[in-house]
From TrEMBL:
Protein keywords: Membrane, Transmembrane, Transmembrane helix
Membrane topology recorded in Swiss-Prot or TrEMBL: Multi-pass membrane protein
Designated name of the protein: Sulfate permease, MFS superfamily
Natural source organism: Paraburkholderia megapolitana
PANTHER family per record: SULFATE TRANSPORTER
Compartments (UniProt record): Membrane
Membrane-spanning segments: 40-56, 87-104, 116-136, 156-178, 190-215, 259-281, 301-320, 341-368, 388-421
One family name in Pfam for this protein: Sulfate_transp
InterPro entries xref list: SLC26A/SulP_dom, SLC26A/SulP_fam
GO biological process: transmembrane transport
Domain SLC26A/SulP transporter: 11-378
GO cellular component terms, A-Z: membrane
Length: 523
């Protein structure tokens, strides 16, 4: 029955897998270029995400591969560790950590991360993507003197290097095409709905490269402004192209705390992005099929372990590819596997075509992604929700910019916790007076921080008064607070104060004893 079902859905999975491949190819290349590594590393991660993670995942529609959200960590990690091989060790370790998260059933913990922190992290990633991709979009080439620049057609000398006019025009046209592709006016056409926007930009770039080479070779983009994949003619060539990790020279890096810090950052951020992507895929899935989060973390861990071992970028479940998979009509994990197979085939069959893609077009795709992550409406909508939401959002964003992703997330979490504590400490205890009768009300749970206000209120009770302590609405009263009231009750007879303490039965059972102060005070 299962085999028959898989056969019946194969045509739709084949079509969806092909669509996802067309979306993933330019993204894998662009993310690798943005990370400052060889484009082949991005394709390796896409292949592992399709062939390994998809096979192990419990999600039927999620697609994994290199993610734009991890670019910042990759760039910072390589710079911090000094080399790409050392960074690959951190990727491998992050896979082990992610697998451990899955074994510990930590998937549910992502629900406790406040949404303002997640939004702040994504907005910071978007801004960093834009900033880091501008040089590629402008075709800036450093290390070229003014005399050489003058001989290059379409090159403009700037303090930052030689700027390519052709790359600038291509980047602007690519951004305009990406924006127009989503407008209702163009979505009316079946061709626009069938062709993914990133693929349209890549086709534009390839056509521009060919046209300039044929009719205006002096304006054509040089090789350093285009994708540079190695030509592979056999699986032996593929094996030699893979950066199979020789961790012998890098084993000493295991004692380097920076390696573990990068690995932990990758594991946490990749896990968060994966779990958020799973939740988003569940919302757009017509059948609302949920995926086991802990199984997904294990699958992602195995994928990152393998990617780190063979020279790939870190992997996560990616919402762009996953949503393309859903909208293309995918029915099972087979579509993600097919996309991985097609990426593998492209390494052999499409190298000459891929090497025609201008880096400016790939930069435009990532800049457009960054714009969507950090659009002004996000700031306005977050600000409207109040200070308690906007503050963690801004703290996370600034923290990521000033330090790194992990510290930025921690700072955002701390800000959220402090604001939550402040909200819970807002008048947990109130005091009302009528003649010589006083009502001390515990409006909610009272922690040890409530001692300050409680002590101030108790000092206001005069001799000979009657005090009612109403704790009926409090599920928890801290030991220090109870002790403070006990001392007041013990001293009440000396001051002729009548004390009546009211507490719910469930609270008395949980604390292990009843507050019998009313009887003691009466006696």
């Amino acid at each position: 029955m299962n085999a028959r079902l898989r056969f019946s859905t194969f045509p739709r999975d084949l079509f969806a897998g092909t669509v996802v491949f067309l979306v993933a190819l330019p993204l894998c290349l662009g993310i690798a270029n943005a990370s400052g590594v060889e484009p082949f590393a991005g394709l390796v991660s896409g292949i592992v995400g399709g062939l390994v993670v998809a096979a192990l995942s419990g999600s039927r529609l999620s697609v994994s591969g290199p993610a734009a959200g991890l670019v910042v960590i990759v760039v910072d990690g390589i710079a911090r560790l000094g080399s790409f091989p050392a960074f690959l060790l951190a990727v491998l370790l992050s896979g082990v950590i992610q697998f451990g998260f899955g074994m510990l059933k930590a998937g549910r913990l992502a629900a406790y991360v406040p949404s303002p922190v997640i939004k702040g992290m994504l907005a910071a990633i978007g801004l960093l993507l834009i900033v880091k991709q501008i040089p590629f979009a402008l075709g800036i080439t450093s290390g070229i003197d003014d005399a050489t620049t003058a001989q290059m057609a379409g090159a403009i000398a700037t303090p930052f290097g030689a700027l390519s006019l052709a790359a600038c025009v291509l980047a602007v046209l690519s951004l305009a095409l990406l924006a127009a592709w989503e407008t209702p006016a163009l979505r009316r056409f079946a061709l626009v709905r069938a062709v993914p926007a990133p693929l349209a930009v890549v086709l534009l770039g390839i056509a521009a490269t060919l046209m300039l080479s044929m009719f205006a070779p002096t304006f054509a983009l040089p090789a350093e402004h285009r994708v540079a994949l190695p030509v592979l003619e056999s699986f032996a060539a593929l094996r030699s192209a893979l950066a199979l990790a020789d961790f012998g020279p890098n084993l000493a890096q295991l004692a380097n705390p920076d390696v573990w810090r990068v690995a932990m950052t990758l594991a946490i951020v990749a896990s968060l992005e994966t779990l958020l992507s799973l939740e988003a895929v569940e919302q757009i899935d017509p059948k609302r099929r949920a995926a086991p989060p802990d199984r997904e973390l294990k699958a992602q861990g195995v994928g990152n372990l393998i990617a780190g071992a063979i020279g790939g970028l870190p992997i996560t479940s990616v919402i762009v590819r996953s949503s393309a998979n859903v909208h293309a009509g995918a029915q099972s994990r087979l579509s993600a596997v097919i996309h991985g197979v097609l990426l593998l085939v492209s390494v052999f069959a499409l190298t000459s075509v891929i090497n025609l893609i201008p880096l400016a077009c790939l930069a435009a795709i990532l800049i457009f992604t960054g714009i969507k992550l950090t659009k002004p409406s996000l700031f306005a909508a977050t600000a409207k929700q109040g200070f308690a939401v906007f503050a963690p959002f801004i703290v996370t964003l600034v923290g990521v910019f000033a330090t790194d992703l992990l510290i930025g997330i921690v700072l955002g979490m701390l800000c959220s916790v402090l604001l939550a504590l402040h909200a819970n400490l807002q008048r947990p205890i109130t005091l009302a007076q009528h003649d010589d009768h006083y009502l001390l009300s515990f409006r909610k749970d009272v922690s040890f921080l409530g001692k300050v206000s409680l002590k101030r209120y108790l000092q206001q009770i005069p001799d000979g008064a009657t005090l009612i302590v109403d704790a009926m609405r409090a599920d928890f009263v801290d030991h220090d607070v109870r002790e403070l009231i006990e001392r007041f009750v013990a001293d009440a007879p000396r001051r002729a104060i009548a004390v009546d303490v009211r507490q719910p039965v469930r609270a008395a059972r949980r604390t292990g004893r009843e507050w019998m102060w009313r009887r003691e005070a009466a006696e």
